[in-house]
Design brief:
It is built from 2 helices and no strands. By secondary structure, the chain is mainly α. It is rod-shaped. It comes from Neoaquamicrobium microcysteis. This is DUF1127 domain-containing protein.
Length: 55
Amino acid sequence: MHRSPLIFALVEDTLSRWRAYRQNMKARRIISDLPPQLRKDIGWPDALPDRTRRN
């Protein structure tokens, strides 16, 4: 039984997850750089300072 296909699959999965994480972070940075009014319009959570967290 060869283990190399399993190793390649694990590496491919790890790289895929890393790319998705990096794309998510890039999108968050881009949205966070928008003016507060636009972030509020699109419903970005950090753009709503008047909302308080309920415990």
